[in-house]
Every structure is written in C-alpha cells, then in structure tokens.
Write a structure and sequence with these properties.
Low-confidence stretches of chain A: none
Pfam families (chain B): CO_deh_flav_C, FAD_binding_5
Number of helices of chain A: 14
Low-confidence stretches of chain B: none
Shape of chain B: globular
Largest sheet of chain B: 5 strands, antiparallel
Structural class of chain B: alpha+beta
CATH superfamily of the largest domain in chain A: Aldehyde oxidase/xanthine dehydrogenase, molybdopterin binding domain
Keywords (chain A): Molybdenum, Oxidoreductase
CATH superfamily of the domain at 224-324 in chain B: CO dehydrogenase flavoprotein, C-terminal domain
Protein name (chain A): Xanthine dehydrogenase YagR molybdenum-binding subunit
Largest interface: A-B, 38 and 37 residues
Structural class of chain A: alpha+beta
Largest sheet of chain A: 7 strands, mixed
GO molecular function, one term (chain A): oxidoreductase activity
Number of strands of chain B: 12
Protein name (chain B): Xanthine dehydrogenase YagS FAD-binding subunit
CATH architecture of the largest domain in chain A: 2-Layer Sandwich
Oligomer: heterodimer
Distance between the termini of chain B: 49 Å
Order of helices and strands of chain B: EHEHEEEHHHHHHHEEHEEEEEHHH
Mean pLDDT of chain B: 96
Chain lengths: ~725, ~325
C-alpha cells in the first residue's frame, strides 16, 4: 500500500469548504420545520396537554401528540434488533419514561415560528417516583436475558481471593454523552407509502429495517440518504424517536419535514455511555504472576430496553491468567436507553482493569509494564485460539521510548519538575477485528474513472479515503480517478459503521471487487484485442491501459477495449466475507496509551505534558486518516479521564449540564504534546489487506493511563471518573 | 423565542429614554449572554435597544485615571498596549475569560451585566429564585459545584461569573452610569450585590440606567500582579475559584496590595481586611498563608463545592506567590 498510503482525505475539500451536504442541508421543495417538546418529569403520565395556543400561533401547520397521532402500523410488533425490549414508540400513549421524552411535535412553515409555538405548549402530569441514580438502585441488578449476558468462568471461580497478593477495588464511570458537532437531524418525506429520509445514520441498511418495521413496510421501500456525517461516535447506531416523529409528521401533512434536535436534546434523547460500577478482584503470586482475575460490572439501562456492552470482556483474554470470572448486570433506570459510545464497553472496562493492574503492580513494587509483560498472553485463553498477530510488546516499547518511561519511579511523588509533581502512566486497549459480508460494485467508465459503490457510511474516520486508496492501489489508477458513491440506499449493501469493522469489511470488498474487475478487463483483452491469444499473466493493467509485460510498446486503452466490445463500462459487483481460515484465530487490535502528567496538588491542576498513543492495527491503509482517528480517539479518552460526566439532579431526574459550556470536553490547550505511533505490520489472517481496525481501540486504555499517571505523580488513586481537580486537591503544606 | 422589537439608539440619552418607559425593554450590545438567555427563554424582552452605535468605545488615559468606554470590546481592552502596561491585572483577567471569539463580541459593560451560569437559572423547568422569585433555589441541596462560599443566602448561592470584574473590583474602579434622572457614579465594589432575599437583582443599577464607562484610578500595580484562574479545563470554562492579586513591593515589604476573588460569591469578592493585614508586612509564604486563612473567614460550603474551602486559600497563596516573584 505504498503509493496510496498517504493520500489526502478525499472528502476534506468538500467538508472544509462547506460544499458537503449533511442531512438537514438537502434542498427540499416545500419543506416545513418540526421540533419536539419534551416532558418535564422523569416518570409518570401526561394528565393533560394544552396545544391550543401553539396550534393558533402564526405559521403552525400541526401539533402532534399522543392525543391525535396516527400510530404507525408497526408499533404493535416493532423490535429493535440491537436491544432486548421495545424501543420507545414516540407519541404512543400518555406514559412518560424519562425526562425530556418527546410528548409533542410542532410543525410550522418557518423555523422561528415553530420554535415559538413549541414554547407555548404546556403539559400537566401525574408524577410517579423516578429512579435515575445507579448508586442508589444498584441492588436492583439483573442479568441480561441472552447468552451474552451469562457469567463467564475459566478455572477456579473468583480464585483471586486465594492469592498471596490480593487487590479488590471498585471503579465507577459516569454517564457520558456522544454529542457530535452535527446535531441529530432528519428530513423525512413520503411518496405514497414509500418514505425517503435524509438522516444522521451510521447504518443505511439498519435504518431501512428499523423504519420499515415501525411503519409496516418492506425495508426495500425505505430510501435512506446519509452521505456525510459530522461525527456520530455511536449515537447513529439506533433509529431514534425523533426520526420516527419526523416521518409521522411528514405522513400527516404529506410534505417534507425537517427536524433538528436542540443541543439540550442531544443529552437526553439519543443515547449515552451508561453509568457503570465495576468491581475488580486481582490476585497474584509475590513475584507478580496473575492467579485470579474477577471483573464485575453493574451498568444502567432504560426501563424499556436491556442494553449491554463488552465492559468485562477484555478481562477474559488480555492477560495470561488461568482463573478468570466475569459478571455483567444491568439496572433499569428512568432514562433514555444507552447506546454504544466510541470504545464502548471495552473503554469502560479497561478503566477498571488497567487501573487495577497498576494498583497491583504498585502493591508488588513492580514496574507496571514489567508486570504486564510477565503476564503476557501468548494465546487467547478465552477462545483457546492463537492470535492472528499481536504486536502489543512493540506498542509497549514504542511508547516507553517516546514518553521517556525510564524517568518514571515506582514511588509516587518522587519526580519533580520545578514546583510540579511528575507522573507517568499507561493503559492497554484492545478491540476485536470483525468483518461482515459486504457488497461492493466496481465500475470502470470510458473516461478512465473508477466508480466504487457501497451503501456504507463515512461518519468521519475516512472510509471514502480508505476505499479510494485500496481501489487505486489495485487498479493502478491515480487516486484522483477513483469516485466513491456511498452512504445511501440503493447501492450495494454495506455494513453499519461501528465496532472498528469498516475497513476490514468494506476495504476487503473493494479489494476483491477491484481484483475481479482487473481480471475481467484482462480476460477481455486476451480475447478481443491486439493481445488476443496471450496469457492473462503476461498482461498488466495500470492507469487505465492494458500493457504487455513482454513488449512495452504494445498497449490497449480501456476506452478502445470498451468500444471494441460495444460496452459502456466494465463493472463487477461482488460480496466479500470472512474466510473459514480466519475462524481458527483470535483477531484483535491492540493499543497502549502513555501519559506524562504534571500536577500542582495545591490547585488540583493536572497538565497533560505529553501523550503518546501506540497501536497494532495490522496494515495502516492511510497514515493521515489513521493518525487523525488515533488523535481523536485519544482525546476522547482524555475527556473520559479528566472531564466528561453527565450530571443528573436526581431529585428531578434531569441533567444539569446539558450544554457545551458545562459539559466539558478537552480543548487544545489541555494537551501540550500529543503523538501517535503505529506498528504497521500486516496481519496474515484478518483480511486481504491485513488490517485489524482502529476506531474503538484508539480510545480504549486512555482513561486508566491518566489515572495511573496521576497516582504516580501524587499517590492519589482516583477510582471514580472523571478526575476533576477536587479529587486530588490537597490542603497546602507549608514549605519547610 | 418570542417576537421582539429592536431599535438602534444613536445617543446615550436617547437610549435611556427609549428604554425607560417600557417594562420589558433591555439594552443589547455584544449579545454574548443576552441572546443565549433569550433563546433559552430565561429572559423574554419585548424590545431591545441596540446601543452598539453609541460613542462609548474609547479607552482614554486621563489625569489620575483611566477611562474605558462601556462598549469597548473585551479583546480591545485586553490587547491595548497602554492597558497592559498600566493595568496588567485587568488585561490578564480579561484574557482568562471566555474565548477569543467571545471576547471580540463582548463589551466591558456587558461583561459586568452577564448573568450567573448556575444551571438552575438557565433551565426554565427548574426552581430558581433569581429567575422566578419565590420559586426556590435548586442549587441548595442540588448540584452546586460552581457555587458560592461567601455571602450567599437561603434564597440563592449563585456566583457572578466574570473574570474582568474581579480585577476591576481589586483596582478600586468606579462605574459611570446615565439614567433618566441623569448621571451618577457607583463604586465598582458596590455595583454588584449579594443575593439576600432578592437574588433577582444582580446589581445596584436603578431605573434602567446605562453604563457608560468604567474608571480606574492610577496605581502602582504594574509589576507584581497576577490573575489566577482555576477551572475544569485550560480554556473556555468559568472559574471555580479565581484570585486577582496586585502588590506594590518595596524592598521586600508590601507597600500596598489589592486582593479579590472570583467564583466564590454573588459579586466579585474584594478582601480589604486581608489587604490591611498584608500592608507593611515582609513578603513570605507564612504571611501569605496567614492572609489566605484570614480570607476564608465566614466561608461555608454547600456540598459539591466544599472543595473550594481548600482550593480558595491555596489559590490565594499561589496568586500572591506568583505575583510577588515577578
């Protein structure tokens, strides 16, 4: 992948010049404007809802609530394939299941009139007691009713308790919210019984199925356009009530309806990373050999859907330990349903596991990396399979060198720079490499351009750029000649973008389709052109021209080959999927984040002096987009470590900091120096390119790296994220 | 947002007249806070009087004092070379506030009049005595990490969010205002008020007076000054605690001193008693510590903000130490 390994982001120009069209920006004749009015209680029933003033307000076309909604025909049976339970059916009845749940929708001829009318809607409620505090409800835990929800045991159950050195601690992570810059937005319209939506989706095909299910129509009748996304981080993995509401409104008025959530609604209505309490039990011999590892998680879900994620999974395979137990429980709370947020459960889990590993290393008076190396897993003990490839040790080495690990002392608080306490910390991340069946059409046009089509989305990681690079590499075309068509229905079916699987799935499909296309062209060349009778292996194809490897002077252009065969273009559509061979291996990406912090304990100030993120993601298809993704994931992990927390006033069941002034994410000034590093070694098993996936593992392991560095600097162990200054603040001690 | 009228005033007199008669009328300048409040339905004026055309943007260095027009932009003041030279504390405080984009829009007068950032004030579904008198205080017994440790009442524990005002309070500034009854001067430390039973009133302006300028008397605080802002991230966050420290040190003796805190009260919290204690003392960490302890007299926490009882004195010592070692 040499020539194309550093091409610029193909959609970069469109994005920075504003010519990229996001969902709500599609020019739609006759479009009208909708917004959702949310409940002001967290649980209960709507006693009355006064929509009259809003209906009479200027420009208002309709106000829809449970009182007058035309219920979609699929409400009776619709199920979300991701979750167990029933997704919220907007306006179905008078029940309120969470604060800010949509109870009415106003549609008006202009945005401003719609906003004003919405402010006139008043509801009265019959309140019921709500529970939004996981800490107070954790005893109501239950198993998720699926085999994935089962407890896991290998060897002796909870064997850590029998060890010579035991660590037992509890870690908590608060609710975090995805909040991409681009708000959740949709334009919905109907043509007879066939809807078309322009919406913020990470999965075109999944959105078609969800909408089809709700309205009782075949998914093929649903058109979904989601060509550009301004980030999503997982919130686009679900079809949300706002999308269904817009479709209900559009159907009612028989007009296109545009609905964009307010920023506040992004905190309450489109999922979040669930508040999770984790218990870790680690046991080791005195010389540092792990003999038992137990990882338990209790996470929140909504009252109407069971959501679970892979919080405890990493503990089953990342270290060489014969006795491992994991348990996962959920507690139903009166909130919206959580949804995977970047890194998802693995990021939550790694905070507990990698903090606990650091704590145990400290107890053993061992260097945390030496301790990990001593417990390095030569194979995946969970699946009892060999790794397809594993360059975790290279990540350790690369990070240690860059961060200056040799300057670290095991004893906390023993390194200083001026008045600042210096601390070094690291955390390991991992994420599975998945590959799902993907269809790609590759088409050579007479003008020399290669068109690649797939319905997969690009929410920002650079999917289009990756497809371009692989297509250009295999066909020998300049990348400028590759045209990507993606992110909408009607194209060959691609996967949902999530779980770091896109490059493995779609990249492989591009790879295979382009190879087939080249073979097809060469096959035609040896049948119909000046190369008639030659072997395909004697021909080469590059820059849109077929040449003979034996005779440089002989060449046939694609255009002449097309015209000779009376064809408009060459095209191949092909479905690619994982090989049987791959099932024999355990395929994971690995990452290690290193952090150097400077701490002023008098002010609780933590400076991130240096951050280094190293990853083994197999082959790196594109250095620029991969580095961008790694920087972004690392910053997401820094937010998790130091700032992010959706604060709820449990008296009201409402968020307090539902805006960007109060819900903090890192700014440039928070990170003084940041580096990323890839091992960039091909995985021989994963897929034809040898990639393993990056998006999730880019975040996994950063939060514990920070917590461990803060401990190394101050001796203070923070087990409840985020590490805000009040948690490490020390009364000032007079200088001697 | 409800429909409203907007008119542009061409003189301060006409501005004052056009607002005086109407109950629900307000001035608007940079709009960096007011527009947010209107969007959130926290305030809903019928009429806005745009004062940005008024001739109140000048920074003037007069005999014995500096006069800063109420419409001078925060960035304009912060970057003014003579301000940096004569009143570096003010420039530092301004630069610590908001973001450059907001500082380009925000005016000096508007900065003084910005409302608290208390979440309960902003969320119209929540109780808040400042927004709706007698509706209760959500922050007491609720989420109050940002809130006051000094001078709060049972009605309100909100804090004033400005950085600039902390420096102006420290520098003995005065506020020049013009109203229907004419012009008057208000001491900066009397401009903002404590909540008491009427937290809906942030300040002592009367009858919709217009701020026309702020005046700072000449001083010797040009070297040993520091504005320390402690916050949850390095930029674009309100102060948890801030300290404006200005020292006039001669031969290691504190000749004169000004000290004020932000993020701790309903108004910029000037520490005159501590200043008196420090005057004439020799610079030392012990003295700064004693000063910090004295400063915390009467402080109390409300739960989430208890850490400010530790952070506050630490920040004072830090600010005095940095200022004195310049």
């Amino acid at each position: 992948m040499s020539k194309t390994s550093n091409i610029n982001r193909v959609d970069g120009f469109a994005k920075v010049t504003g010519s990229a069209t996001y969902s709500a920006e599609y020019k739609t004749d006759g479009v009208v404007y909708a917004c959702l009015v949310g409940s002001t209680i967290a649980k209960g029933r709507i006693k009355s809802i006064d929509t009259k003033k809003a209906e009479w307000a200027p420009g208002v076309l309709v106000v829809i609530s449970h009182l007058n909604v035309d219920k979609p025909s699929g409400y009776a049976k619709a199920k979300d394939p991701h979750n167990f339970g029933q997704p919220l059916q907007v306006f179905k009845d008078d029940t309120v299941l969470y604060y800010d749940q949509p109870i009415a929708m106003v549609i008006a001829d202009t945005f401003e009139r719609m906003q004003y009318a919405a402010s006139l809607i008043k509801a009265e409620y019959i309140k019921e007691e709500h529970i939004t505090d996981l800490q107070k409800a954790k005893d109501k835990e239950k198993k998720v009713e699926t085999d994935k929800g089962d407890d896991y045991h290998r060897g002796v159950q909870d064997n850590y308790k029998n060890a010579a050195v035991v660590l037992e601690e509890e870690y908590t992570i608060p609710t975090e919210v995805h909040n991409p810059m681009e708000l959740a937005n949709i334009i919905a319209k109907w043509d007879g019984n066939k809807p078309t939506v322009y919406t913020k989706s990470q999965g075109v095909e999944g959105t078609r199925r969800s909408i089809g299910g709700v309205f009782g129509i075949p998914p093929e009748d649903v058109s979904v356009n989601s060509e550009y996304l301004g980030g999503a981080f997982g919130m686009g993995l679900h079809t949300w009530p706002y999308e269904i509401a817009a479709l209900i409104g559009s159907k009612k008025l028989n007009r296109p309806v545009k609905l964009v959530l307010h920023r506040e609604q992004m905190f309450t209505n489109v999922g979040f990373r669930p508040y999770t309490i984790q218990k870790m039990g680690l046991g080791a011999t005195k010389d540092g050999k792990l003999t038992g590892l137990t990882h338990e998680a209790v996470a929140m879900t909504s009252s109407y859907e069971d959501f679970m994620e892979g919080t405890v999974n990493m503990s089953r395979f990342i270290y060489n330990c014969d006795n491992v137990s994991t348990r996962y429980r959920i507690v139903k709370l009166d909130t919206c349903t959580p949804i995977w947020m970047r890194g998802p459960g693995e990021a939550t889990g790694s905070f507990a596991l990698e903090s606990a590993m650091d704590e145990l290393a400290h107890k053993l008076d061992m260097d945390p990396i030496e301790f990990r190396k001593l417990n390095y897993a030569e194979k995946d003990l969970e699946q009892n399979k060999p790794w397809s490839s594993k360059y975790l040790l290279e990540c350790y080495e690369g990070g240690m060198e860059r961060i200056g690990w040799k300057n670290r002392k095991n004893k906390p608080g023993s390194v200083k720079e001026g008045e600042w306490l210096v601390g070094y910390g690291m955390g390991t991340g991992t994420f599975g490499c998945y590959r799902s069946p993907t269809s790609v059409k590759a088409k050579f046009l007479a003008d020399g351009n290669l068109v690649l089509q797939c319905s997969v989305n690009d929410m920002g990681p650079g999917t289009a750029t990756m497809m371009t690079a692989i297509g250009a590499e295999i066909t020998g075309l300049p990348s400028e000649n590759v045209v990507i068509e993606m992110g909408k229905s009607g194209l060959p079916k691609g996967p949902t973008q999530g779980g770091s699987a896109t490059t493995s799935s779609v990249g492989s499909a591009v790879h295979d389709a382009c190879n087939l296309l080249v073979s097809k062209i060469l096959g035609l060349a040896v049948e119909t052109s000046t190369f008639k009778g030659m072997a395909i292996t004697d021909l080469a194809f590059a820059n849109g021209v077929v040449t003979s490897k034996k005779d440089n002077l002989k060449s046939v252009s694609l255009a002449s080959l097309l015209s000779a065969n009376k064809l408009e273009n060459f095209e191949v559509e092909n479905v690619s999927k994982a090989t049987e061979e791959a099932k024999k291996y355990s395929i994971y990406s690995f990452s290690v984040h290193f952090v150097k912090v400077l701490v002023n304990p008098n002010l609780g100030k933590i400076r991130l002096a240096h951050v280094v993120s190293c990853a083994d993601i197999g082959t790196v298809i594109n250095q620029k987009t991969s580095a961008g993704q790694m920087y972004g994931g690392a910053v997401g992990g820094i937010g998790m470590g130091l700032m992010e927390a959706l604060e709820i006033d449990h008296r009201f069941g409402r968020p307090i900091n539902n805006n960007f002034a109060d819900y903090h994410v890192p700014v440039n000034a928070d990170i003084e120096k940041q580096e990323v590093f890839f091992v960039n070694k091909k995985d021989p098993i994963s897929n034809p390119m040898g990639t393993k996936g990056l998006g999730e593992t880019a975040l996994v392991g950063m939060a514990p790296a920070i917590a461990n560095a803060v401990f190394n600097a101050t001796g203070k162990r923070v087990r409840d994220l985020p590490i805000t200054l009040d948690k490490i603040l020390e009364p000032r001690v007079a200088n001697a | 947002m409800k429909n409203f009228q907007i008119i542009r005033a061409l003189s301060s007199k006409s501005a004052v007249i056009s607002i005086a008669k109407e109950k629900e009328a307000m001035f608007i300048a940079g709009g960096t806070n007011l527009v947010d409040l209107m969007k959130k339905n926290v305030v809903a004026p019928d009429k806005l009087v745009d004062i940005t055309a008024l001739d109140l943007k000048k920074i003037e260095f007069l005999t014995g004092k500096t006069s800063i027009g109420a419409l001078a932009k925060n960035s304009q003041v912060a970057e003014d070379k003579a301000i940096i030279e004569k009143h570096p504390l003010l420039a530092m405080a301004l630069t610590a506030g908001a973001s450059q984009q907001i500082r380009h829009m925000a005016t000096v007068g508007g900065n003084m009049l910005q409302r608290t950032r208390c979440s309960y004030f902003y969320n119209t579904d929540m109780p808040c005595n400042k927004r709706v008198p007698k509706s209760g205080c959500g922050a007491i017994g609720g989420s109050n990490r940002m809130h006051a440790i000094f001078g709060a009442s049972d009605s309100c524990i909100a804090v004033h969010p400005s950085d600039m005002c902390v420096a102006l309070a420290a520098l003995d500034a005065t506020v020049q205002v013009e109203g229907p009854k004419g012009k008057r001067e208000i001491k900066f430390t009397d401009f903002h008020r404590l909540p008491g039973n009427t937290p809906e009133k942030d300040n002592t302006l009367q009858n919709k007076e217009l701020i026309t300028s702020v005046e700072i008397p000449n001083n010797n605080f040009t070297k040993n000054v520091h504005y320390l802002k402690v916050r949850d991230r390095s930029s674009y966050a309100f102060a948890l605690v801030s300290v404006a420290a200005a020292l006039d040190i001669q031969n290691n003796t504190i000749n004169d001193v000004r000290l004020a805190m932000g993020g701790v009260a309903h108004k910029p919290w000037r520490l005159t008693e501590v200043e008196e204690f420090l005057k004439g003392k020799t610079v030392s960490e012990t003295i700064f510590r004693q000063a910090a302890d004295l400063a915390m007299k009467g402080a109390r926490g409300y739960g989430d903000n208890d850490f400010k009882l530790t952070l506050g004195p630490n920040a004072i010592v830090e600010a005095l130490t940095i200022a004195s070692s310049k």
